[in-house]
Write a structure and sequence with these properties.
Keywords: Methyltransferase, Transferase
Largest sheet: 7 strands, mixed
CATH architecture of one domain: 3-Layer(aba) Sandwich
Organism: Komagataeibacter swingsii
CATH class of one domain: Alpha Beta
CATH superfamily of one domain: Vaccinia Virus protein VP39
Order of helices and strands: HHEHEHEEHEHHEHHEH
Radius of gyration: 21 Å
Mean pLDDT: 91
Structural class: alpha/beta
Protein name: Methyltransferase domain-containing protein
Strand order of the largest sheet: 3-2-1-4-5-7-6
CATH topology of one domain: Rossmann fold
Distance between the termini: 54 Å
Number of helices: 10
Number of strands: 7
GO molecular function: S-adenosylmethionine-dependent methyltransferase activity
């Protein structure tokens, strides 16, 4: 990672949040497992086998699912507590500096774990470097408008009570940004598909509890320090649109990303002038 990259996120805070969440992540396992299952389902469309896998920040869910598919998998996490809870090989490391030799893996998976890195293009380039030729990268990343309602509710409540706002929700990329990032990092056949995981909470506090249990609370460097005042939090939650029974519906919008490490055997588009049949003849059905 270049030190010229803007440091939007406090990686120390991210690690502390994940350390704390190691004891509570089981409460959000159904959400994490749903995202992992949808992402790994893409392997069903691939005919080649995978033997050496790397899980980046899967919180115990992704590596288990990869191993269940017969893929020898190393899991990694910024939190040593998360690593200690894994049943297989684990490396405690920062995803912004991948400590692996080139071509070490033929499959790398990052499910809901890369939205807190500062240099995402740099991380993706490192992932491509540790993939063997024709290796596959799979990622699931939150995208806009995830948590948009909570973001606006917090801003409105803070403006009303304090006359100003501080950043409280991570800035998520858009779907098009994700596809562009894969291409920029040098992946071939890059694809970013939109998907939505529908969630429901009995009360708005359930959403905040899930964020905390998953280690997803505010880690922005410019965040306000200290605990959010209960009056401010109550005002913000009161602004969220709830159902008649007081429940809160939330959609987790994600980009399902796939990209391949370049290899000579991969198909390549023809250069202009290489076609032997004109478009006019093809449409008329004549040779």
């Amino acid at each position: 990672m270049s030190m010229d990259v803007p440091q939007i996120f406090d990686r120390h805070a991210v690690r502390l949040h994940r350390d704390r969440a190691a004891a509570t992540v089981g409460h959000v396992r159904p959400v994490l497992a749903e995202a992992a299952d949808r992402l790994l389902d893409r392997l069903d469309d691939v005919t080649r086998p995978f033997h050496a896998g790397l899980d980046i920040g899967g919180r115990g869910v992704v590596a288990q699912a990869m191993r269940a598919r017969g893929i020898a998998t190393v899991t990694t996490d910024l939190s040593w507590r998360m690593c200690a809870a894994d049943a297989g090989p684990a490396v405690c490391m920062d995803a912004e500096w991948l400590p692996f030799a080139p071509h070490s893996f033929d499959l790398v998976v990052a499910c809901l774990s890369l939205h807190w890195v500062n240099d995402l293009p740099g991380v993706l380039a490192q992932v491509r470097g540790i993939l063997a030729p024709d290796g596959l990268f799979l990622a699931c990343m939150p995208v806009l408008p995830t948590l948009g309602g909570l973001r606006h509710a917090l801003m409105e409540a803070e403006m009303a009570q304090r006359g100003g706002v501080s950043p409280r929700i991570s800035p998520f990329p858009g779907l098009r940004d994700c596809a562009g990032l894969l291409q920029r990092a040098g992946f071939t056949l890059p694809v970013a598909d939109a998907d939505v995981i529908h969630l429901s909470y009995r009360t708005p506090m359930g959403l905040l509890a899930d964020l905390r249990n998953a280690g997803e609370t505010n880690a922005l460097r410019m965040r306000a320090r200290g605990l959010t005042h209960p009056a401010l939090l109550a005002d913000a939650l009161g602004r969220l649109p709830v159902e008649e029974d007081g429940s809160l519906a939330q959609d987790l919008h994600v980009a399902m990303m796939t990209g391949w490490s370049p290899a000579p055997s991969q198909p390549r588009p023809l250069r202009p002038g290489q076609f032997s049949v004109s478009l006019e003849d093809a449409l008329r059905g004549t040779p």
